[in-house]
Amino acid sequence: MSDSLALVAVRLAARASSIPVGVRAGAGVGTAAFLARLHAWRALLVSHPGTRFALYIEDSIEFAAALLGAWQAGKTVWLAADTLPATCANLRGHVHGFLGEFPAPHEPMNPFGEAAAAPLGELDPESDALVVFTSGSTGAAQAIPKKLRQLASEVATLEVLFGARTQGAEIIATVSHQHIYGLLFKVLWPLDTGRPIHAAGIAFPEALAPALAAQRSVLVASPAHLKRLPAHLDWQGARARLAAVFSSGGPLPADTAQACGSLLGSVPIEVFGSSETGGIAWRQRAALPAVDDDAWTPFPTVAWRLVDGFLEVRSPHLPDDEWLALADRARAWQGKRFQLLGRGDRIAKIEEKRISLDAMEGALLATGLALEARVVLCEPEGHQRQVLAAFVVPSAAGRALLDGDGKLALNGRLRAALAGVVDAVALPRRWRYLDAMPVNAQGKTTVAALLALLAPPPRLPRVRELERGNEGRRVLLEVVAPADLVYFDGHFTEAPILPGVAQVDWAMRYGRELFALPPVFRAMHALKFQHVIQPGLPVQLELLHDPAKGQLTFAYRSAAGQHASGRILFQAEAGDV
User: Fold this and answer.
1) For residue 333, which of 51, 130, 295, 439 is within the disulfide window of CB 3.0 to 4.6 Å?
2) Confidence (pTM)
3) How far apart are CA 54 and CA 143, in angstroms?
């Protein structure tokens, strides 16, 4: 069974062509159609001299065809978590090409039309099948290579543990297959065992409830998604037909697990593991609180031990048979299971003092003023030392304090709670109060996403030059005010518009950059504001310079008409006329 993944394409080719591989837009995708795409991807890659290719396709069925086609062509697939510029730039130094839905500058390869069917062979279990990336939830994402036998071992283990309860169910997911958890549960396991795959992920609960009610299904989700299931939706159909719910990416709070059990009729099965280790253990909390509810049961193929309070594992999911030391602190529970006690790598050093970020987050949650809390290390510009930043989703009580008495009052209450946990030098210097933690496609909150929230909002638009003429005295720019522009904050909450003072400021700023204007502002004439400028609207800014008069004339225009205009006069020295 552990080598079955090496033969999955061969088995697909041997079975009846009408058997569905999955569902796309409500219609079944048969084996014949899937194999046609597999052959197209194989034909595209088999003659390419490169061996390493980055793959990103949102449709899970097309992704699976591309993945198997690449493997049949003898290629190693690098699994990109997204197609952001930084991700693509990092990949470019490692791969020979891009496949699927990467931005055009990266010249992504895609097969068009059909290709002749070629014999599909058994794959080498020792082949370098995949490179995945860690989530970045504890730091920078790291590349992790995977041999085919490691993936096959995981798939076999999932079938042994959960096959009976999920037999005949279709796979519906809120997470992306571009990460190891989604790849295994949403693509490889169902593809290997004949469970139909739903091509599209489901992002919104309003679409999830009817999708789960439509057929017997398995839900592959994350804590971030399960925490936000609204109780007012009709989950009755889901309760009747849901075979199992899986969650990974972080521990699921007990009250969330029990709430999911009530809504969905199935308490989530939580899977503990990582990109590096693969699956390690699982747990399914009781519908009602229990004493040993938080203990984890190791996978049958995983050996574990504790060394100085830290977890070490050995399993066929790893590249070798050596023990791997983890950063997770744990303690044994009733001999065969263990409880997790937080991560040891979440220790920060501030002014030579070791600080547990887990302990700080626990103290914040214990106040009753926070639903969620993350504390991370940051190094603000201009500072010589690192400081801590706290990101908090307030509870109802915390929100009432924030709205009633302001940010400083809530800061003070939370800082007071931390005073008993850490020295004053380690108290967070920066605080952000959020409606929800930022999450990526895997439902994870990354350090990079949190630190991005500390960046000051922009004060300038996106600008590109369109025309220049009249002997250099006329310039036409396109300006676009981004939605997170600082000037939109509070102006106005329901329908943000760009303040006139910002429009005048930009005209003067770009006028000084483009023309040799006199240094001193003298007067402004004929200032008019005709139409509002909203976030994201491309607007043309025309700037005209009259050196003889020391005058800058500006006008903002778009398809909607003229938005604003005016004349600004300058003079060489203060007091000149």
Assistant:
1) 295
2) 0.71
3) 12
